[in-house]
Amino acid sequence: MDNLMDNLTTTEAAVAAGVSLPQVNRVIDDRILPDDWYSTSPTRTVRTDACLLISFYFETADLLTAGTRLQIIRNAVAHDHTWEQWKDPGRYHRLPGISSPKRRIKAYLPSAFAHSVC
Questions:
Q1: I need a surface site. Which of 34, 44, 89, 91 has the fewest CB within 10 A?
Q2: Residue 49 lies in a domain
């Protein structure tokens, strides 16, 4: 049963991420997500944890450039967190001297953007 929830159709992902279906398709077509985070055959699907990144990409469009958003997504994917780790990053990964969620966000964002976002 767990395998059924590992991937979502693009329609399900749009609902989960709070974006439109064309936006989910754009993420696939423009390769915003790494190739192993989605599938195009036999139907288009994305990993369930990709919804967080899809939402981030479009919700921060007015705050960050496309290049910066892509860089943040690539950095997040490079750490290969599980959904449990995304939900509670402090439980799994503590940065030395960084205790609050706001400080953790600032630690991952470029300094010029972290100040304006947080």
A1: 91
A2: yes
